[in-house]
């Protein structure tokens, strides 16, 4: 705890070689430091304590400086000042408690941020799998041995010393042969990271427009996807998507005269993606393919009047590309953009008099913007 009045009195009365005006100046700075502590302004308090100590050194000023640095989570500096305090106070009554504080400061857990090249390697610390890079892990104080592996290849073992709660950063490189084997080598399933994605975008359906002799209709699409890394650069995923629209007008009858069609659809899919390019810890480019179902209903309207609703069901597939980016500040949170083409031949229900039962292609182009969170690893 800060020592205000007793220390101030000791400075003023100290029988040291310091001149009287030095002691007075030290007392002024010490009082200013005590006032700054009451305001919670620990940085200003440290500046005042340093000036007080420079004018008239006293062990208790070192104690108070150490306490202020501890408040600011500057644990190493706090421990250094506590040691100086004990060295200058060989008869200190609180020696035992101060030594315990020094030990507690040294033994605080540290956060280690690990990035690998290539990205997506399994981090092993002291023989224990901790996740997939890039990743942040907490370490107890002391020496640790860290290594990453990708498939059957491993980086060198690096010793990491964790102390005083200080953050550490480590970059580990897997031998280049691992990049070539990543597509076929098995990574420990326990370490495979998950990824949860939310996206929204637009779809263009040229087949529907062509069938009704209309312009290409556009729909609003959305999806929720869960994925997991299966191999070094390969991911599998399942998603539930949906689309509303399009509104298709039959221009053959005449603009604003013909019937309109609307679709409300759900589209569960499953597929796989392979990373074809990556920037370690920051970005990746995936090529993906997926197959799935589509079901929902189709409505036929004249003006605002719905004259028929029919069930829609189909199956198909497609593929595309997806760019995923993670900021350095939040490596587990990703932004993404994907572009894909799907072919979805679908059966439309009963004969309405305008469209007989038949098959239409509800697929087309999809452009989706999304946000993803990695569950256990980075991009």
What's the topology here?
Blueprint: H1 5-13, H2 20-39, H3 42-55, H4 59-71, H5 75-88, H6 95-106, E1 110-117, E2 122-125, E3 128-132, E4 135-139, E5 142-150, E6 153-154, E7 158-162, E8 168-173, H7 177-181, E9 194-204, H8 206-211, E10 218-229, E11 234-244, E12 248-249, E13 260-279, E14 283-302, E15 305-326, E16 333-343, E17 345-348, E18 358-361, E19 364-375
Parallel strand pairs: 1-8
Antiparallel strand pairs: 1-4, 2-3, 2-5, 5-6, 5-7, 9-10, 9-19, 10-11, 11-13, 12-13, 13-14, 14-15, 15-16, 15-17, 16-19, 17-18
Q: Using the coordinates shown, work out and report the CATH topology of the largest domain.
A: Porin
Low-confidence stretches: 11-16, 178-192
Strand content: over 45%
Could you describe the largest sheet, including whether it forms a barrel? 8 strands, antiparallel, barrel
Question: What is the count of structural domains?
Answer: 3
Strand order of the largest sheet: 9-10-11-13-14-15-16-19
Query: Can you identify the CATH class of the largest domain?
Result: Mainly Beta
- Total number of strands: 19
């Amino acid at each position: 705890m800060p020592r205000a009045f007793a220390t101030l009195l000791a400075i003023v009365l100290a029988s040291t070689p310091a001149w009287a005006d030095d002691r007075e100046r030290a007392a002024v700075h010490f009082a200013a430091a005590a006032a700054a502590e009451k305001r919670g302004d620990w940085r200003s308090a440290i500046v005042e304590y340093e000036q007080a100590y420079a004018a008239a050194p006293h062990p208790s000023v070192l104690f108070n400086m150490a306490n202020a640095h501890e408040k600011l989570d500057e644990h190493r500096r706090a421990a250094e000042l506590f040691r100086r305090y004990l060295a200058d106070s060989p008869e200190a009554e609180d020696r035992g408690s101060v030594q315990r504080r020094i030990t507690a400061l040294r033994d605080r857990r540290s956060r280690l941020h690990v990035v690998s090249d290539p990205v997506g390697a399994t981090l092993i610390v002291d023989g224990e799998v901790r996740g997939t890079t890039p990743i942040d892990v907490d370490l107890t104080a002391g020496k640790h041995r860290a290594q990453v592996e990708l498939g059957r290849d491993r980086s060198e073992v690096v010793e990491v010393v964790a102390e005083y709660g200080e953050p550490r950063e480590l970059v580990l490189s897997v031998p280049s042969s691992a990049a070539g084997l990543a597509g076929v080598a098995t990574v420990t399933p326990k370490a495979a990271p998950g990824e949860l994605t939310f996206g929204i975008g637009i779809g263009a359906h040229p087949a529907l427009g062509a069938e009704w002799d209309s312009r290409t209709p556009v729909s609003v699409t959305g999806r929720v996807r869960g994925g997991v890394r299966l191999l070094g650069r390969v991911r599998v995923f399942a998603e539930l998507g949906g689309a509303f629209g399009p509104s298709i007008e039959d221009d053959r009858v005449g603009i604003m005269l013909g019937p309109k069609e609307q679709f409300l659809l759900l589209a569960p899919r499953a597929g796989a993606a392979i990373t074809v390019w990556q920037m370690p810890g920051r970005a990746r480019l995936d090529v993906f393919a997926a197959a799935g179902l589509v079901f929902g209903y189709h409505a036929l309207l004249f003006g605002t009047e719905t004259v028929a609703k029919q069930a829609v069901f189909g199956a198909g597939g497609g593929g595309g590309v997806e760019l995923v980016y993670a900021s350095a500040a939040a490596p587990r949170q990703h932004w993404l953009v994907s572009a894909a083409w799907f072919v979805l031949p679908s059966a439309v229900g009963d004969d309405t008099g305008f469209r007989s039962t038949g098959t239409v292609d509800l697929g087309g182009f999809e452009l989706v913007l999304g946000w993803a969170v990695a569950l256990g690893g980075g991009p």
